[in-house]
Design a protein that fits this description.
The chain has 313 residues and is an alpha/beta fold. It has 13 helices and 7 strands. Bound molecules: pyridoxal-5'-phosphate.
Length: 313
Amino acid sequence: MDQKRKENLAFASKAVYYAPESASQSIGMPIYMSSSFQYDAESYQRVVEGERKAVNIYGRCGNPSEYAFEEQIAAIESADNCLATASGMAAIAITLFGLLKSGDHIVCDWTTYSSTHEMLDHRLTDYGITTTFVDTANIEAVAAAIQPNTKVLYFETIANPSMKVPAIPPLVELAHRHGVVVVCDNTFASPWLIRPLEWGVDIVVESATKFIGGHNDAIGGTISMKSKLLPADFLEQFAGTRWSNGAHRCRRLTPGCCCAGANAGRADGRVCRTAMTLARHFESHPKVRRVWYPGLESHPQHDVALSRFQFGG
Ligand SMILES: Cc1ncc(COP(=O)(O)O)c(C=O)c1O
């Protein structure tokens, strides 16, 4: 199936279909165990000219098992490009180190995954990169935090652990007016609930370890992009120096990603319906003080969630 036809498929169909491997017509991607591939001067030149995926040279730079996973993710994220990484944290680190240099500034939500907060609040400061933490559900606070050296606006589509759901379009509009790149972590939502690139976000990172893998047997991460602010080959620039994911794990994650429609929304949204049932149960439980779940009317961004997320059922 050609790329154009695949783009027109429904999400679940996009997730389950990928072209058979050309050498064997295997519909399950073989695991290429080679650390190195045979190449000559001409093929090396093609790699230099940006044809990394067409000519394999060295496993850290990528191998066909990884490309299959990256292409599946790009299809379900509505991305132009995707890079598979060793973990979700590797995806976040590679993205931020790729975008930022000493003296740059980030505006980031107060609530992100703890290791992300730790990285921004401590590790990046060692490199002269500073962060202002704000409530990204408050657009005035975000506007006030932007400085002349702000390069990145960072938030999570559903924040871990507060379950905050920032409204994406106003954040994108504000950031892009200042030339600021919008990066969001879509791990808690998954591409089944929302595809932030379709709402103007420039880069989406995912911990593929969660809903994308779906089987609790592989750590992995992805960086997907579709951006007018960044060069088309932005991700390619890190292919050789990233913490790569490796053929084995990509092969494990690809069937998970094929089931992403089913993983996050297992059987037409059952995960969301189950979560909703639990949320309602605990909301009326006398021993529970407060439940934070975007599907509940009591959640502060319930309307945003309703208008953006495909809640199951
Ligand atoms: C929202 C979020 N982002 C990133 C990560 C990091 O992902 P990984 O454990 O694959 O490095 C996690 C891990 O729990 C997470 O919950």
